[in-house]
Design brief:
156 residues, alpha+beta, Translation Initiation Factor IF3, four-stranded mixed β-sheet, 55% helix, elongated
Amino acid sequence: MPDLEQQLGEVIECARRGDWGGYRACLDALREALAEDPRPEAHVLVQRHLDTLSAASPRHDPEGCTAELEALAAALRGRGLKRARARPPALDLRGLQPPEPIVRIFEALERAPDEPLRAILPHEPVPLYALLRERGYAYSGEQRADGGFELLIERS
């Protein structure tokens, strides 16, 4: 299985050549590699850039697309992402009444501010996002098959 950095290199090459069919295929392969990568810090970093790229039209802004991909490559190199870091245990906050889930998230972040935190919530915690950004945290999340929402939080 190719790693994130290799997949990203292939996406960049397709963008530089203007091979938009190949670009889409390589971008999909990059998403698959991300899904299989065990490093939570990679998920936060790469997902943020993928969200930006998904909203863009590479054919109409090839320079912007390539610049975003190169920024991601530089960020991956600069972060020195560790190989095969264990996925942090999840804090299951379903079933709690507001504001208890947010209180527990911030308590956990206070106990280990530099460690990634995974939280499972009953729904997407949109009001939490501004509070996390104010405190210097990045986040990414996705709907779960069971209807809940899984959030990964780490230092920016």
